[in-house]
TrEMBL record:
Active site annotation, chain numbering: C442
Species the sequence originates in: Salix viminalis (Common osier)
Descriptive protein name: phosphatidylinositol-3,5-bisphosphate 3-phosphatase
An annotated GO cellular component: cytoplasm
GO molecular function: phosphatidylinositol-3,5-bisphosphate 3-phosphatase activity; phosphatidylinositol-3-phosphate phosphatase activity
Region (Disordered): 494-533
Amino acids binding substrate: N356, I357, C442, S443, D444, G445, W446, D447, R448
Gene3D superfamilies: Pleckstrin-homology domain (PH domain)/Phosphotyrosine-binding domain (PTB) (2.30.29.30)
């Protein structure tokens, strides 16, 4: 049974509470709040919340609130960015009860009367609830204590913060670029154009864009700056890839024949065959379907240009109209329509039958209601297992959904996803297998066209299946080519008027929870008055549906994508939250006028920072990615295009157990983390081993050097000893005693001469009676002891062959 919200006993008198409830005064509510919670924190002291983001501030909060989905009590906080639910038990943020304000689609107050139990005479108090419905598949309900004004305070806080009057009132502008600096997206777009033309060695710059010097070309195609001031087509980018044979004047003339001026331009070029994917809007054929444009026909024919040496005959052109044929004919009444094959040489027109934005919006609403009905955390607080007797998958088993699959099919969501996948696969096959060129359009060329052309790009080019390439693909075919994110997401307009599609009815609805566990229909518990505003009519989950299609391809080809399903979920959540400015406004021109890239943070920088924090082991990376396994186009067979619910997104709130990654993927990720840790440990050990080896080699080299020096010193010492011995013998032969000392090598010579002895025994006495001793030192010293330094130069000048060895014996 549905558990009633927990309540706290009130200390005030009943009369005072009744008076407060009847008056509904905001000031009285604040006074009561202070009396009821004397120790609670005031709004001025919420800086202590550590979970608040930069520039995020608390607007209002309520205590003792119950999250009906899980019957959990806590604190509900409205900030200028999020609605946050804190668990009373853990004081942590509860993900199910927390949602960015921009993600909220609508919210309303409800009063539900509980039926008294049998034989219970006392009147049971009504439950005062606040229902919040999000574009991220959330339907959450909060219960408030009776006879308080907390619900009104929270409701008014949401009313003020979820409907900003100007674009610049969004949180992204308050936060600023911060650490997620946004490089100029026009530079990134131009670099992608260079890559498509085979000019990847060129690098774009702001100076190049300002001077208009980016008009490069190859054999078939060129980059035109005809739309640099956004006059020809306000919703197209500043740089366009067009056939080289078509002049800028012809482009301007051809744009007048297409809806919104969105003339045929190239989105992707095959590097080998020269086949292209092109996009445009519908032609303006007129009410009688007899209007023609020679320039438009020439431009479309030029899409079949062939490089030199192409030997497969004339290239065929397919014109893929994403709409049902009847819808294309209906557009004739407004001057639109489709091409006539007879006017476009060797072309074939194909209709894909994909429904419009209104059908997609209603389909997602039905899917969301279905998931809330059969999920394990329903907004009425009753488990699906109890509501349906245990036969639905919402109790925790996705494989046993046979009894409710008809209802899922009635939502039509998977059928729409299959239609988009099938159309994209068909386009990719024509380019890859037939080398044909394909021109894709719908009515205005910015919804279904963006879905088909970008999915075909993804199938054909492996670069777009990497994290960097996926960013380039979105920036090219969604942002630069003017998908109206402002209208499709219900954001405030650049002009300053708010067009958010929120149901802001203050009128409370009255319903009742039945005593049986069966869940009542959502319309009886919270009926919503339909809105006829233009903004609500233009809201549609086109980009969400495309991301869903990408997730289906990721499921079919798990080795082909560098990114994971978790990356897609975080990307989609960031887009819906409006935390970053990349997806603001309807076109590149509007974002430039608003100064978004300079004033707001960059989503791509944020996601790149997350990935770099953990390297390849981060959850955004696909563990099974093998670029060599799928280094060419992906061409899924028709039988494989059977989409399923995307568990990580569709089921994460309604059935959390099913949203978790499969057991095999979880085990692989754990093994990958362990492997990463072991790899780091191995690299550390190898680094230490290398350092040790280098140190040993250095020591060995030093040791060898020391050995060489020691050997050289020993040689010098031996030589010196020999020289000293020879000198000593030479001096001793003079009858002197020689004493060597250290220091500067002083030599003490002791001489003892007797008169006349010198003349007889001196070997240096010449035959003529003269003395050859230098300066007659021996005669001057006589018998005294003197200390002299050895005069090695004088000794070396003596000749040992003169009378030195002459003993004079025998004479």
């Amino acid at each position: 049974m549905s558990a009633p919200p927990r309540s706290t006993s009130l200390s005030d008198s009943s009369s005072e509470l009744e008076q407060l409830e009847s008056t509904g005064s905001w000031d009285d509510a604040l006074d009561w709040f202070k009396l009821e919670h004397p120790g609670s924190r005031s709004v001025l002291h919420h800086a202590n919340y550590k979970f608040l983001l930069e520039a995020e501030r608390v607007i209002v909060e309520g205590h003792g609130v119950v999250l009906i989905n899980t019957d959990e009590a806590g604190t509900l906080i409205v900030t200028n960015f999020r609605l946050i639910f804190l668990s009373e038990e853990t004081e942590n943020i509860v993900a199910l009860g927390t949602i960015p304000l921009a993600t909220i689609e609508k919210f309303s107050k409800m009063v539900v009367k509980n039926q008294p139990a049998p034989r219970q005479s006392e009147k049971t108090p009504s439950q005062r609830l606040l229902q919040v419905i999000g574009r991220d598949m959330k339907i959450i309900v909060f219960g408030f204590r009776p006879k308080t004004q907390q619900r009104r305070a929270i409701y008014d806080g949401l009313l003020r913060c979820t409907k900003p009057s100007r674009l610049w009132d969004l949180y992204a502008f308050s936060c600023g670029p911060s650490k997620f600096t946004n490089a100029n997206p026009k530079v990134r777009l131009l670099n992608e154009c260079f890559r498509l033309l085979g000019k990847g060695f060129c690098s774009a710059s702001i100076d190049m864009i300002d001077k208009g010097s980016y008009t490069l070309s190859n054999e078939l195609w060129r980059i035109s700056n005809v739309n640099s001031n956004y006059i020809m087509c306000p919703s197209y980018p500043f740089a366009l890839i067009v056939p080289k044979s078509i002049s800028d004047e012809e482009l301007v003339h051809a744009s007048s024949f297409r809806s919104k001026g969105r003339l045929p331009v190239v989105s992707w070029c095959h590097p080998g065959t020269g086949a292209v994917l092109a996009r445009s809007s519908q032609p303006l054929v007129g009410l009688m379907m007899n209007m023609r444009s020679n320039t438009d026909e020439k431009l479309v024919a030029a899409l079949c240009s062939q490089p030199d040496g192409y030997k497969k005959g004339r290239r065929k052109l397919y014109i893929a109209d994403a709409r049902p044929r009847k819808n294309a004919l209906a557009n004739v009444a407004m001057g639109g329509g489709s091409e006539s094959p007879s006017h476009y040489f060797q072309s074939e027109v194909v209709f894909f039958g994909i429904d419009n934005i209104h059908a997609m919006r209603e389909s997602l609403f039905r899917l969301r209601d279905y998931l809330d009905t059969h999920g394990s955390t329903s907004s009425d607080g009753t488990l699906s297992l109890l509501r349906h007797g245990g036969w639905t998958w919402g109790g925790g088993n996705l494989s046993s959904m046979s009894a409710s699959v008809a209802t899922l099919g009635d939502s039509g969501w998977l059928i729409h996803v299959q239609s988009v996948l099938a159309g994209s696969a068909w386009i990719a096959a024509r380019v890859a297998l037939e080398s044909a060129s394909v021109l894709v359009h719908c009515s205005d060329g910015w919804d279904r066209t963006s879905q088909l052309i970008s999915l075909a790009n993804l199938l054909l080019d492996p670069y777009y299946r990497t994290c960097t390439g996926f960013q380039a693909l979105i920036e090219k075919d969604w942002l630069a080519f003017g998908h109206p994110f402002e209208e499709r997401m219900g954001m405030p307009t650049l002009s300053g008027s708010s067009d958010t599609s929120l149901d802001l009815s203050r009128q409370s609805s009255v319903g009742s929870f039945p005593s049986s566990p069966m869940r009542q229909s959502s319309g009886s518990s919270a009926p919503q008055a339909p809105s006829s505003s233009h903004a609500q009519n233009q809201y549609s989950p086109i980009f969400l549906q495309w991301i869903d299609c990408v997730s289906q391809l990721l499921r079919m080809y798990p080795f082909a994508f560098e990114f994971s399903s978790a990356f897609l979920v975080d990307l989609l959540d960031s887009v819906l939250s409006c935390r970053f400015g990349n997806f603001f406004c309807n076109s590149e021109k509007e974002r430039q006028l608003a100064g978004v890239s300079e004033s707001c943070g960059c989503l791509w920088a944020y996601l790149a920072g997350l990935r770099s924090s953990e390297g390849r082991s981060h959850v955004h990376y696909n563990l099974f990615y093998s670029p060599l396994k799928h280094n060419g186009p992906l061409l899924p067979p028709a039988a494989a295009l059977a989409p399923t619910l995307w568990p990580q997104f569709h089921l994460r709130w309604a059935c959390p157990s099913e949203a978790q990654a499969g057991e095999l993927e979880a085990q692989c990720r754990n093994m990958s983390l362990k492997f990463s840790e072991l790899q780091k440990a191995k690299e550390g050990a190898e680094k230490k081993a290398e350092e040790t080896t280098n140190a040993m080699e250095s020591l060995s080299a030093e040791l060898q050097n020391e050995k060489r020096l020691s050997s050289y010193a020993m040689t010098l010492a031996k030589k010196a000893n020999k020289e000293c011995a020879a000198i000593k013998r030479a001096i001793q032969s003079l009858g002197c005693k020689v004493h060597f000392a250290g220091g500067d090598t002083p030599v003490d010579i002791e001489t003892k001469r007797e008169s006349g002895v010198c003349d007889a025994i001196c070997p240096l006495r010449s035959r003529d009676g003269g003395c050859r001793w230098p300066e007659a030192g021996c005669a001057q010293s006589c018998s005294q002891f003197i200390g002299v330094k050895a005069n090695y130069d004088a000794i070396d000048s003596l000749s040992i062959y003169e009378t030195y060895f002459d003993t004079r014996e025998g004479k």
